[in-house]
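Page header: ASSEMBLY MODEL / two components / 571 residues total.
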Amino acid sequence: MVKTDFTLRDVVFKNRVLVASGTFGYGDEVKDLVDVNRLGGIITKSLSWEPRDGNPPRRIAETASGMLNSIGLANIGVHKFINEKLPYLRELDTTIVVNIAASSIEEYCDVLAELDRHDGVDAFEINVSCPNVKEGGLSFGTDCAMTKEITSRLRPLTEKPLIVKLTPNVAHISEFAKVVEEAGADAVSVINTLVGMAVDVRTKKPKLSTVTGGLSGPAIKPIALAKVYEVAQAVDIPIFGIGGIASVEDAIEFLLVGATAVQVGTLNFVDPALSVKIADGLVKYAEANRLNDVGQLVGALEANVEFSVLQSWL
Amino acid sequence: MIVQHDAVVSVVDEIAEKIFLLRVRSPQLAESSAPGQFVNVRVGDGRNGPLLRRPFSVCRVDGDFIELLFNIVGEGTRRLASKRDGEMLDVLGPLGKPFGFHGDFDTAIIVAGGLGVAPFPFLTDSLQKEEKQIVTFLGARTRNQIVMMNLKSVKLATDDGSSGHHGTVVSLLEQYLATHSPQKPKIFGCGPTSMMKALAELSFRVGIECELSLEGDMGCGIGICQGCPVELVNGEKKYALVCTQGPTFLADQIILS
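Prediction written out in full:
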């Protein structure tokens, strides 16, 4: 038997393949199509204190090997989540990570504190790629001090694992990983979407109503791998690797460069059962390579160049 | 129940100029689909061909087969048109909310613009089983692009005047309603947004209930990507999702943009 699980604080994830926030709803929409109990975990759609309508259409545009989205954090709000979605999620035999998005530090704290009181929420993932309303709408996540501040303020509010999801839209993502590690985060998720844009040449208008949006899908996988690798050299806390994972080979690449686990995102839209297939594929790969723990792949990259040399290229 | 499986392509036919009918064997989908619902078809994997699935109305159900109608708009539909008999097609469905075809009406007024005809052969079959009267208004760019299939009592409009009424299908319906009073009518419409806007406005003026089938920018088709909002007139929420709360909506409940 190959060992597949890992733990964060005392929370057990049964395998190393989770579904990324915003790509699996609240888990109930896809129950006909995949046995969600076989997932390493479900990361919910971002929740804010109040419900959010989200952005006007168009919200998505397909691009080469990927897609742009500008959903605008549409969500049902924390109270409706607790009343309508959590009872279903609580009964599942998988780890439930609730993703939180907010427009002020106070809102992050309120949402986390409210959720922390309820059974069924196993861990938190913090989406810092949100506009900071008080600071004129600039993203919290591109401000290192602000990212640290959010983590420091949330840390004392919960004993549950606290994961911070980092944006790649910064010069050195490892600096952000270091400050959230210092502030007490248990793990980081790397990476959120990259800012991107597409234009309709017939109408000469942007394809998204918000002009720019977040690029995801296989197009970003090489970037994501490089960011995970960079972060893995900089911190000791576990990394959830995210970015265009479409196959078991993709997942293995992320583990090799230093991810403790992976999150499948955009590909859930195409094949909702993919994450479970990848989890099965990791076991087969481990067996074929005579490993007794999938975790032996984590950071097992055989790079013959010192990272400090590579850094000069970053 | 939604299923995802590999259906077997039976045939792809160009049934009108640049308009294709794809027939696939899928007993599960044939059994469980209702008119107005759609299926989401995988046409590539993001390296070869597009990443995201493409939604198609269930055009007609025939025994163990379902049929999908499409024209070539890009790489995805080009690939579909080149499918050969016996090839597999990854199909997810049935998805979305069906047309309200059981309701309290006697005459179905079907109004289709261009490829918007896609859901109506199936709807026509179901309406006939319900013993409803049917009159169909069919608009096409030109006579070579008219798709009749099993539609009933068809009145034609073409943009270029090559067949039937020279003008829009909505203007043809307006003329018709000026001289006819169908028994307890209900309009079912599908087509380009500009046509559906005009149809909705006409339905409000003449006071006939109108149900529209919308197209959205669907990333997933199953309500998880939130990519296909349509604005609601005055709901508890500002938007509904075309994929799960539609694609069929009553015209007076949505704002077409």
